[in-house]
Amino acid sequence: MDFLTPVDAAAPRVRNSYQAHVRWGARDVTVGGDAPVRVQSMTNTDTVDAIGTAIQVKELALAGSEMVRITVNTPEAAQAVPYIREQLDRMGIDVPLVGDFHYNGHRLLTEFPACAEALSKYRINPGNVGKGDKRDRQFGQMIEAAVRWNKAVRIGVNWGSLDQELLAGLMDENSRRAVPWDAKPVMYQALITSAVESAKLAESMGLAPEQIILSCKVSGVQDLISVYRALSQRCRYALHLGLTEAGMGTKGTVASSAALAVLLQEGIGDTIRVSLTPQPGEARTQEVVVASEILQALGLRSFVPSVTACPGCGRTTSTTFQELTKQIDDFLRAQMPVWRKQYPGVEAMKVAVMGCIVNGPGESKHADIGISLPGTGEAPAAPVYIDGEKSVTLRGDNIAQEFQVIVENYIAKRFGAAAIA
């Protein structure tokens, strides 16, 4: 069958948003515009524990989080923020800190100027900054702090803490329609209206539109897609994506991937967080890994060398290739904080660890460096391919260690300073 025209290659659409700057010292994390889609995360430590919080922030930053949000909910937490920043600076971690404020943020930012200065961005929830006459005044105090200290602001609406006065007004308006909408579209409208109107109010108080990031968090995949499609048509503010309570483990990972992939492919979203509930004993950094993998799978960014591996079948009853794949993947991730500085471009490298002769040689040839391990009943030999050409065949009990050395040597040769020069 002949094709009249070539098949179009799929690619995410170009985003069209203002560009915010989230700064600390010489570090300037751009969000929106032509900047890469940014990964961020949040600590789950008690912020009053400055050392413990700083350690977790460092772990998240080294895992790839480009901004880290911390809870600022009490005077004690606000007092701890400058010390957290100081500890991070001493460790050489310049990741910007985002303060998460609810209910009393106006007071904390006003009464603790050192906290306001140490943070790089403020997260404001317009649903709980106050009611009635207090709302605009207390919201205004937070915006005044952002203007004074030249900080970016995320106006983050959440359907679990939506402005009830606004929702009630829209519900009353809906009841007067000839054909009232269902409740869910009214909820969508309330989320979007709260975010956009709060942003316009912040602008009227002196905050530049480029320093405003919006989010409308919900917990359902289709709800998130619906809200953000509409929100992106209503404004050009940079947008933060994420399900508000994605869940634990596989459920949270799949739900976040499904929702974020659709929106990012449509050119919607400038920064993301995957809000995973950690399983017992699981590192907080797992949500950073998942967020990075989503962006890398879509071709939007490269964070670590990708490892292609077959799932295994009756031809691969040995677990050797599974063990080697995990070993190589763990090794690459552990080395990336150093390699990012030492070997620019290494994050785009492709590695293949395959389990038998069916697809092993072919996948290995397509990768930058690959190994095809012997399947059940195959000759005990593992050919290694470098840049599409067979380089060497490994045999014996130390295949894993020998292949890791080959990978290290390849990286140094291809991405080292001499290769760049």
From TrEMBL:
<keyword id="KW-0408">Iron</keyword>
<dbReference type="InterPro" id="IPR004588">
    <property type="entry name" value="IspG_bac-typ"/>
</dbReference>
<dbReference type="InterPro" id="IPR058579">
    <property type="entry name" value="IspG_C"/>
</dbReference>
<feature type="binding site">
    <location>
        <position position="356"/>
    </location>
    <ligand>
        <name>[4Fe-4S] cluster</name>
    </ligand>
</feature>
<keyword id="KW-0560">Oxidoreductase</keyword>
<feature type="binding site">
    <location>
        <position position="363"/>
    </location>
    <ligand>
        <name>[4Fe-4S] cluster</name>
    </ligand>
</feature>
<feature type="domain" description="IspG TIM-barrel">
    <location>
        <begin position="28"/>
        <end position="291"/>
    </location>
</feature>
<comment type="pathway">
    <text>Isoprenoid biosynthesis; isopentenyl diphosphate biosynthesis via DXP pathway; isopentenyl diphosphate from 1-deoxy-D-xylulose 5-phosphate: step 5/6.</text>
</comment>
<keyword id="KW-0414">Isoprene biosynthesis</keyword>
<dbReference type="Pfam" id="PF04551">
    <property type="entry name" value="GcpE"/>
</dbReference>
<dbReference type="Pfam" id="PF26540">
    <property type="entry name" value="GcpE_C"/>
</dbReference>
<dbReference type="InterPro" id="IPR016425">
    <property type="entry name" value="IspG_bac"/>
</dbReference>
<dbReference type="InterPro" id="IPR058578">
    <property type="entry name" value="IspG_TIM"/>
</dbReference>
<dbReference type="InterPro" id="IPR011005">
    <property type="entry name" value="Dihydropteroate_synth-like_sf"/>
</dbReference>
<feature type="domain" description="IspG C-terminal">
    <location>
        <begin position="307"/>
        <end position="408"/>
    </location>
</feature>
<keyword id="KW-0004">4Fe-4S</keyword>
<dbReference type="InterPro" id="IPR045854">
    <property type="entry name" value="NO2/SO3_Rdtase_4Fe4S_sf"/>
</dbReference>
<dbReference type="GO" id="GO:0046429">
    <property type="term" value="F:4-hydroxy-3-methylbut-2-en-1-yl diphosphate synthase activity (ferredoxin)"/>
</dbReference>
<comment type="function">
    <text>Converts 2C-methyl-D-erythritol 2,4-cyclodiphosphate (ME-2,4cPP) into 1-hydroxy-2-methyl-2-(E)-butenyl 4-diphosphate.</text>
</comment>
<comment type="similarity">
    <text>Belongs to the IspG family.</text>
</comment>
<keyword id="KW-0479">Metal-binding</keyword>
<dbReference type="GO" id="GO:0141197">
    <property type="term" value="F:4-hydroxy-3-methylbut-2-enyl-diphosphate synthase activity (flavodoxin)"/>
</dbReference>
<feature type="binding site">
    <location>
        <position position="310"/>
    </location>
    <ligand>
        <name>[4Fe-4S] cluster</name>
    </ligand>
</feature>
<feature type="binding site">
    <location>
        <position position="313"/>
    </location>
    <ligand>
        <name>[4Fe-4S] cluster</name>
    </ligand>
</feature>
<keyword id="KW-0411">Iron-sulfur</keyword>
<protein>
    <recommendedName>
        <fullName>4-hydroxy-3-methylbut-2-en-1-yl diphosphate synthase (flavodoxin)</fullName>
        <ecNumber>1.17.7.3</ecNumber>
    </recommendedName>
</protein>
